[in-house]
Design brief:
InterPro entries: DUF2283 (IPR019270). Pfam families: DUF2283. It is a single chain. By secondary structure, this protein is α+β, with helices and mostly antiparallel strands. Helices cover 18% and strands 36% of the residues. The chain contains 3 helices and 6 strands, in the order βββαββααβ. The radius of gyration is 13 Å and the shape is globular.
Length: 80
């Protein structure tokens, strides 16, 4: 069973939704969705076998729910 992992960088306003059980899996091909068709930038990452590995959402605060972003692993937090 794949456990969904979401990361969010508020400074970049970018989220990544992992659709694989191994977040270290490398993308073999990225498909850039038409920015006009989705009112922003969404990139789909595919593995060498053609499976969808993850979705990158730029402008995430306008495209994803606040609940999802609040629950996401934060990448913009700096430990002091």
């Amino acid at each position: 069973m794949v456990q969904l992992k979401v990361t969010y960088d508020a400074q970049a306003d970018a989220a990544y939704i992992y659709l694989t059980d191994d977040p270290a899996t490398r993308s073999a091909h990225t498909y850039l969705c038409d920015p006009n068709g989705v009112d922003g930038m969404i990139n789909l990452d595919f593995g060498a076998d053609g499976r969808l590995l993850g979705v990158e959402v730029l402008g995430a605060s306008e495209k994803l729910s606040a609940h999802l972003l609040n629950a996401a692993e934060r990448l913009d937090v700096v430990d002091s």
